[in-house]
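Let's practice the habit of predicting before peeking. Look at the sequence and jot down your guess about where helices and strands might fall. Then scroll down.
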Amino acid sequence: MNTIEHFRQLFAYNNWANRRIITALKENKSEKARMILAHLLITEKEYFKRLGGKDSTGFDFWQDLSLEDCANLAQEALENYKAILQIFEDESISQIARYKTSEGVAYQNTFSEMLTHVLFHSATHRGNIVLKIREEGFAPPKIDYIIYLRETKHT
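Done guessing? Here is the structure:
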């Protein structure tokens, strides 16, 4: 499997896991978990914009969004990352994106590095969400990558 195809599979998993979290939060209504989910999805959107050189100076990554808003952002992220990965070939994923952080600091990273960050950041915060769900006495959804592979028949 080439790099682009691997990223496509990982972003499909990312969407699957985000959807499972959204479904779980419809049932247990954890406010803390919903806030973390909102942060995760807002970050996915902002990093997509950073791939295009967006200046994030002053951006608030911790906005209070409804679960419906989160579901809409998850769909938007799916479409955005699917579209950007459709135009890439392995060589072009090493192109540089220049952007500014929320603190106004200029950075540059390859697209590959930024896409990897989005996936790791989202996975980290889904882990935080699972912990919050457990702390509130609910059974969290199973969102492991291997379960995704088993359920979607990827081998």
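How did you do? The beta strands are 96-100, 106-110.
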